[in-house]
Amino acid sequence: MADELIDILDEAGKPTGKIRLKSDAHAYGLYHASVHIWFYTEDGEILFQKRADEKDTFPGLWDVSVAGHIGTGESPENSAIREIKEEIGLIVSKDNLEFIGIYLAKKTPAPELFDNEFHHIYVSKLYTSISTLTIQKEEVSDISLIEIDTFKNTLYDSVRNNIYVPHDKEYYELILKEIKNRLS
Questions:
Q1: Distances from the Cα of 58 to the Cαs of 55, 87, 118, 135, 183, in angstroms?
Q2: What is the pLDDT of residues 17-61, one digit of tens each?
Q3: What does the DSSP 8-state code read for residue 1?
Q4: Which terminus of the chain, N or C, has less C-beta within 10 A?
């Protein structure tokens, strides 16, 4: 996976004017921004991706439909559109994305790897079959639709929830609430 230049943020999520490699941000725990895009179907299913085994953070675990770092000078929306096309081969417009908020996540996924990210979160209805999607093998090893209640039950089961990236429960509850509101 290629390293990339990203903007460094302060603890409040404001740009500092500094630009660093993503690997530096993770090595030194520098704050930076990412996009998370959650796709859902009219049938109440959520699209999950299984992270490639070669990923430096949470390899082989199921995660958000699409995610990635916001490149230097890139807007969150443009980053989301780019990441969606790269990771699952789907072309969307800004009109397809609903921004639901920013969530600060602080994680130490591995020794000497400090991930302090402001996730810019979007939801979008998935209008196509997952069989038409093309995954980026360097980033994603598989994709699957999981029914909302099945995911929620697994999430709160401490024996079975270790197949998912360990986002905060508050983060997952925000996502589930926003998707359920759109299905009502």
A1: 7, 16, 18, 18, 30
A2: 999 999 999 999 999 999 999 999 999 999 999 999 999 889 999
A3: -
A4: C
Residues in the chain: 184
Contact of 165 with 61, CB cutoff 8 Å: yes
Q: Do the Cβ atoms of 32 and 104 come closer than 8 Å?
A: no
Q: How far is CA 126 from CA 43, 81, 134, 177, in A?
A: 10, 14, 14, 17
Q: Indicate the pTM of the whole model.
A: 0.95
- 3-state SS string for 10-68: CCCCCEEEEEEEHHHHHHHCCEEEEEEEEEECCCCEEEEEEECCCCCCCCCCEECCEEE
Neighbours of 180 (CB within 10 A): 14
Distance of CA 26 to the CA centre of its chain: 16
| Residue 6 binned pLDDT confidence (cut-offs 50, 70, 90) | very high
Tell whether the torsion through CA atoms of 131, 134, 136 and 137 is positive or negative.
Answer: positive
Q: Nearest-CA neighbor of 72 among 24, 135, 105?
A: 24
